[in-house]
Amino acid sequence: MPIYHEVAQVIQSIFSKETDELAKKTGFIKRKRKITGSSFIKTLIFGWMQNKSC
């Protein structure tokens, strides 16, 4: 299996409902809001990608 296939699977799991459930379980999200656990992770990752020194 090529490495990019494995990376794609990991990224999909990060951006899925699993992340939203984990955010609720850990207390990051306590009530329904516009931001979700997965949208927070997406913001962090794509924000870091914009910064070339990261």
Structural features:
3 helices, mainly alpha, flat, 54 residues
Our estimate of the beta-strand percent is under 5%
Ranges with pLDDT <50 over ≥5 residues? Answer: none
User: What is Rg?
Assistant: 13 Å
What is the helix/strand order? HHH
For the largest beta-sheet, the strand count, sense and barrel status come to: none
Specify the number of helices: 3
Structural class of the helices, strands and pairings? mainly alpha
- The whole-number mean of residue pLDDT values reads 80
Alpha-carbon distance between the two ends: 29 Å
Q: Sum up the overall morphology in one term.
A: flat
Strand count: 0
Portion of residues in helices?
A: 55-70%
Brief summary:
The chain is mostly helical and 54 residues long. The chain has three helices and no strands.
Question: How would you describe this structure to a colleague?
Answer:
The protein has 54 residues and is mostly helical. It is built from three helices and no strands. The longest helix has 14 residues, at 37-50. The protein starts with a helix and ends with a helix. The model has no long low-confidence stretch (mean pLDDT 80).
Describe the SSE topology.
Blueprint: H1 3-14, H2 17-26, H3 37-50
